[in-house]
C-alpha cells in the first residue's frame, strides 16, 4: 500500500544502503507511479511502499534490516507510546498472574477482587522501571562508545522510538498465557530473546552500526535492569 501524500522534499532513507533520498516515488498523474532509484546503490529506494502491510510485518518479524528502515524512516508511524504502554500492561499481567499462582488461592470468587488489587499496578510500575533502566543503559553505552551518533536531540528521540517499536514482541506474552501448557516458562524465555534481537536490529538500523556494538549496549542495559531487579528484591518485593 503506497503511503499517502509523501512529500517530495522530505528526507527518506534507502532501505538497502541507508543512503538519503528526497522522494520514494514520483507521481506522473493518472495512476502512473515510478519508484525512485537510489543514487548510491542504484536499487529502488523503498520497495516496500508497494507491498502489503502483512508482508512488511512478516519481514519485520524476521528482523530484516530493510523492513526496519522502511518502518522507521519512510513511514509516519506514531504508535510507539501506545505500543509501549500496552506491552508493559502485558508484562505486568503475566507477572501478576504468576504472583497470584504463587499464593495458591483457588477460590474463583476472589478473581474480581484480585483484578482490583494493588499488586497489578505495582507490577506495572516495576516493569516500567526495569524497561526504563534497560533503555538508560543502552543510551549511556552508545553515547559513550559513539558520541558522534547521538549529538542532537532528534537522534535520541529517533533511537527511543526505534527501541519502543522493537519491543512489539512482548505482545506474544498474551497468547503464551491463553494457550497455557507445561512449556510456558520456555516460551517466555524465547519471547525475551526475540525482543532483545529486535532491539539489537533497531539500534543497528537507526545508527547504522555493526552487529557487535548494539549487542554490547544491550548487555550493559541488561546489567542495569538486573541491578534494579536486585534492588527490588532486597526491598522485599516480589518481581
From TrEMBL:
Transmembrane spans: 123-144, 156-179, 186-206, 212-232
Subcellular location: Endoplasmic reticulum membrane
GO BP term (any one): intracellular sterol transport
GO cellular component term, pick one: endoplasmic reticulum membrane
Pfam families: Arv1 (PF04161)
Major location (coarse): endoplasmic reticulum
Entry membrane topology: Multi-pass membrane protein
UniProt keywords, alphabetically: Endoplasmic reticulum, Lipid metabolism, Lipid transport, Membrane, Transmembrane, Transmembrane helix, Transport
Alphabetical list of InterPro entries matching this protein: Arv1 (IPR007290)
Function, as annotated: Mediator of sterol homeostasis involved in sterol uptake, trafficking and distribution into membranes.
Family as reported in the entry's similarity comment: Belongs to the ARV1 family.
PANTHER family, per the entry: ARV1 (PTHR14467), PROTEIN ARV1 (PTHR14467:SF0)
This protein's name: Protein ARV
Species of origin: Leptocoma aspasia
Amino acid at each position: 500500500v503506497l503511503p499517502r501524500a509523501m512529500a517530495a522534499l522530505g528526507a527518506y532513507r534507502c532501505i538497502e544502503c541507508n543512503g538519503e533520498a528526497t522522494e520514494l516515488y514520483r507521481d506522473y498523474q493518472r495512476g502512473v507511479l515510478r519508484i525512485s532509484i537510489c543514487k548510491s546503490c542504484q536499487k529502488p529506494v523503498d520497495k516496500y511502499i508497494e507491498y502489503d502491510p502483512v508482508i512488511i510485518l512478516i519481514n519485520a518479524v524476521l528482523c530484516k534490516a530493510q523492513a526496519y528502515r522502511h518502518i522507521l524512516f519512510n513511514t509516519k508511524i506514531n504508535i510507539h507510546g501506545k505500543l509501549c504502554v500496552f506491552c508493559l500492561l502485558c508484562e505486568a499481567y503475566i507477572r501478576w498472574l504468576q504472583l497470584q499462582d504463587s499464593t495458591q488461592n483457588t477460590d474463583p470468587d476472589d478473581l474480581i477482587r484480585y483484578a482490583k488489587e494493588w499488586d497489578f499496578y505495582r507490577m506495572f510500575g516495576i516493569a516500567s522501571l526495569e524497561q526504563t533502566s534497560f533503555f538508560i543503559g543502552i543510551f549511556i553505552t552508545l553515547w559513550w562508545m559513539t558520541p558522534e551518533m547521538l549529538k542532537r536531540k532528534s537522534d535520541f528521540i529517533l533511537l527511543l522510538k526505534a527501541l519502543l517499536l522493537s519491543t512489539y514482541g512482548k505482545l506474544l506474552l498474551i497468547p503464551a498465557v491463553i494457550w497455557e501448557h507445561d512449556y510456558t516458562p520456555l516460551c517466555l524465555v524465547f519471547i525475551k530473546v526475540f525482543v532483545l534481537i529486535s532491539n539489537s536490529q533497531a539500534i543497528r538500523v537507526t545508527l547504522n552500526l555493526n552487529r557487535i556494538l548494539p549487542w554490547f549496549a544491550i548487555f550493559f542495559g541488561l546489567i542495569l535492569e538486573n541491578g534494579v531487579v536486585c534492588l527490588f528484591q532486597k526491598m522485599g518485593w516480589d518481581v
